[in-house]
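Practice problem 4.
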């Protein structure tokens, strides 16, 4: 379970203080699919980073499986979450000089033997129907293919939680639908899915939808239109 308790977060811009969250609380059960919506600047990415152990709040607590993340040192947080959380970013974040296979292998390179990592990576790449692109560079892929590579990389450690920041933001409708089908499959396999999105079609795939507004988070009804 993910539990956020009374979290406050702000940034300083020149002489001004910009409040992102004020006493924000949220609980997410294991295996749920959560959509997070809100206008640009409302804090969607910040919330994902809080959950993922990448952004310490000014006040409040964040628990992953009853572990109080920000009571630990940064290295302990990374170790604790390494195999629990996978991130998928809107901008793909693939390294241009590395092949598809090498990009997918990167998260495990410091931790396991290369041959073992390669076998795991190839298995995932095949599942995502990218085996014919194994040795291609990112610039040789379509946007949809690059996003699938980003998913493969995030899934390499078999994380229980998959955090996606605008995963379809740079995709056309056909590739968006392909990525949503992939997320459905992962959800059916038991992964917890957390998606921040501007796209209402994407948001409505979630079991629960939360809207960030005025430094708080409010659950709203799902529209099936």
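Answer key:
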């Amino acid at each position: 379970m993910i539990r956020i308790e009374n979290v406050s977060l702000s940034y300083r811009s020149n002489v001004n203080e910009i409040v992102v969250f004020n006493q924000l609380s949220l609980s997410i059960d294991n295996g749920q699919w959560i959509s997070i919506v809100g206008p640009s600047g409302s804090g969607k990415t910040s919330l994902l980073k809080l959950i993922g152990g990448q952004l310490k709040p000014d006040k409040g607590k964040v628990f992953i499986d009853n572990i109080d993340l920000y009571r630990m040192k940064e290295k302990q947080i990374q170790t604790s979450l390494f195999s629990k959380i996978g991130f998928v970013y809107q901008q793909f974040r693939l390294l241009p000089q590395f092949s598809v296979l090498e990009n997918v292998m990167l998260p495990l390179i410091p931790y396991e033997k290369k041959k073992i990592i390669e076998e795991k990576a190839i298995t995932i790449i095949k599942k995502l129907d990218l085996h014919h692109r194994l040795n291609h560079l990112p610039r040789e892929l379509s946007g949809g293919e690059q996003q699938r590579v980003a998913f493969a990389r995030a899934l390499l450690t078999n994380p229980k939680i998959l955090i996606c920041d605008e995963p379809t933001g740079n995709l056309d409708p056909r590739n968006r639908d392909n990525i949503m089908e992939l997320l459905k499959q992962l959800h059916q396999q038991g992964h917890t899915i957390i998606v921040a999105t501007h796209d209402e079609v994407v948001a409505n795939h979630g079991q629960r939808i939360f809207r960030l507004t005025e430094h708080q988070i409010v659950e709203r009804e799902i529209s099936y239109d």
